[in-house]
Amino acid sequence: MSDLYYVTSSPHIKSDKTVRSVMRDVIIALTPAAIGAALFFSLRAIVIIAVSIASCVLFEFLYNLIMKKKQTIGDLSAVVTGLLLGFNMPVAVPIYLPVIGAAFAIIVGKMLYGGLGKNIANPALCGRIFLFLSFSSYMTTWVSPMSSANGAALPLFANVSRSAVDAVSTATPLSYLKSGNAAILRDVPISSAFLGTVGGCLGETSAILLILGGLYLIYRRVITWHIPISYLGTVALITLIFPRFSGMTAFQFMWYNLFSGGLMLGAIFMATDYATSPVTPRGRIIYGVGCGLLTVFIRYFGGYPEGTSFAILLMNFLSWFIDSHTTPKKFGGESRYGKLIKKAKE
Amino acid sequence: MKTKIAQQLKSRLFYIRLLSAAVLIMSFIPRCSPITAYGGESSGSLVMSLGRLGAVINYFSTEIPSFKAYSSTLFILVILIYVALIGLLFGLLLTFSHDKDYRKHGRDAIFYSSVVLTLVFMVLCVLYFNINIKMYQWGSVAVYRKLLIIFKIPVFLLVYTVLCAAIAILNILENGFRVSDLKYKIESELGHRFKGGIHVPYNKVTRKMAIETLPPSKTMVFPLSQHIGAACESLVKAGDTVTVGQKIADTDAFVSAPVHSSVSGKVLKVCDMPHPTLNMAPAIVIENDFEDTPSDTLTPHEDYSDLSNEELISIIREAGITGMGGASFPTHVKIQSALKDNVDMLIINAAECEPYLSNDNRLMLENCDELIGGINILRRIFGLKHAYIGIEANKPRAIKTLGRAVHKTGIRVVVLRAKYPQGGEKQLIKAVCGRVVPSGKLPSSVGCCIFNVDTASAVYRAVVKGLPVMRRIVTVAGDGVSRPANLNVRLGTPFADVLQACGLKDETKKIVMGGPMMGACQYSLYAPVVKGTSGLLCFTESEEESTEGSCIRCGGCVSACPMNLTPNYIGMYAKMRDFDKCEKLNAADCIECGCCSFTCPAKIPLVQYMRLAKQNVIENRKRQVLKK
Fold first, then answer.
1. B355 → closest Cβ in A2, A13, A277
2. Does the distance separating the beta carbons of A280 and B555 come in below 8 Å?
3. Which of A38, A45, A236, A276 has a CA positioned 20 to 30 A from the CA of residue B65?
4. What is the largest CA-CA distance in chain A?
5. pTM of the shown model
């Protein structure tokens, strides 16, 4: 019997859940889409994703080292950022592009704010938008998936030559929609948009694999249904009620909008990023609806065919504001409606 | 022909809607629908929701999704007929039972069986008698259309409504009718759910171990403050001899409870001693002479029927009974304040949602009669016909034992889905009867009064056996003891003796009094067992250095909080010492259950911050009141 015992505040048991285990779950959920990327776009996809992950971890390590801070790479959040950043690049980008993106994402997007949890915008999105605005031509050159010419045109590490890209390049479903090209139904049927055999960024093409990952995350209680459902639901509703394409039915238009571009990746993995989304259930629904509205508006009226990343970025800035206005009603407390009635009576 | 049917339908549709609306409205009025009256079957809520769903569909629809494959439909129909017939038979048998509850169950069974039979009969009618469908037509849309007719025959709804009305009248005749019932809906014996909460690993290793009696120690320590409220003053001084059950400390303060000696012997001294929750506090130290000389402080009342409420309450006060669940609020004060508020719901807290602890479970299994006796006394005091025991579904044996014991008594066992913190007062009220206690109010404001099972037994022992609170059941568990057990310990026994009996290991790092979620850490083993000691847990895990990470805003604490607060923001503002913001975020409503800390992936001690915020908010409020 010793005489000295620990005295701590209750509770004296804690759950097994740690930041590391949460991030591990996200990585597991993203794995199917990564394998899909390798299948659709040759092994170069894996190389790009790996470079992106490695440089993200490296930059976080270096930042902590230089700034003399506690090392934080163990929480795996840099790996998740790297994965998502890699997913947001076309396969034909030169190999130094993910490194530049990772530097921006980790240093400017995350560490300068104080690290994980204090950043106001999703780091991977920051990186993506930085690259998109700085290297537009690289970031919008799409390669047709599952093509036999890909193997020759896409070397594992070397830069892809212009002419080789032209031989295998294709358009995304969204650019078809934007230009009003009626050939979309023949060239990229909805089923291939769903499976992922269309042109696009590495990880965003396959809706089915991303939905699988999302279901895993919901099953493991890493994310809640609020953001993905309200986001996708808003997009589905608006595109169904106000279709802007004469060559197809409203339902077809809705499915194209849901399955193509970065919407699935954005709604399931980017918008649900913990640090930059609201924490209250009501706030999450408002946030998801906002993301959906902005996405559709940019797709309809904006200059770019794709609006997911800008929409999420804009809503990221609002998440604290949304939180502070959607504090849940305390147990046994009065609803706002009840309070209003009381005021009116007085 | 077509127009004729359409005309008929048009007129019938009106009646269908009328009946559906009636059914819907009735299903929401307590005691007016068969299952929502007090009690009922466990599956009641499901059947009720199905009934409601059916009524809603009937009201709004002119088209209803139909069956796909008829061979399997027929199979299902036949099974349904069998089930319904069996239900009908059992129901009929039950209606002849002597017990009121069973008669009601019987009526429920007859009702649902007849509904099922009617429905099945109608489907069969349509399939095989009225509509002549050829084999190859099965599966075509036209057939589905024809089948819709069965939903447009109001016979089903008519039967449903008539039966509802009949059973409602019977229920009202039996139980009486009060307008206040309309305000509160009691759904079924399978309780409601409260928002938030977490699923903790229960680790109830001691739940199958019988209660053992621990012999008293040589030196016993009786703190003068073992309850919430004013501390007692010692009635004895050093050198006095005391007997078992003698009152050794008392006070005139209203919110207080006297202390009794649990051994006979000599008073050594009255001085400051280690206290389980108050650090150091004045206590009476008694040297045990192991003679157990009895005293006659309380007179036993085998038959308490001629005692008045005041007499019963004064017995409870004199016996020093406090809430035995851990908070230790004096029971007589609770009863008196509840009597002023017209309590109509007596709830017994048997949830025992804290991991490791199994003392209430063992008490229910081994001393069930005392518990029921205690509940009867409490019912007598409040003048209530019914009482409800809220128990979590993870104690099947206790549920069975209680179920047998409450037979024909008017006490009902409400089985709750296991979730922490079920035993929290407000959460339990929500789970048992669906009432929501307004923020900052006492349970009696919604007509509820809650007692722990151990408290109810203590009331029985005090009134019928004339025994003050001198013993309690303590669960000793955790990986720091080699022999976990449920012990019947005399109050005042130092923790060291209790733990030694269970084989305290040398590598124990932490000793907790109470459950692991809300219990208090002990720094000294000389602190004694007090009235609120439900368990002693020893942990060997070496606490890692406080590795408080930064919040990643996952929202886990927000969804876990049973009081619907935002612990992450309150914690953040408390850290910045911005207590006005904390007050706006309702920090004062925190019940310190520990769900947020438990679930936090960054391992932030949120409860600690919540406590800080709560204390400051309450102090600020007091200061403002003083200013005014």
1. A13
2. yes
3. A236
4. 82
5. 0.77
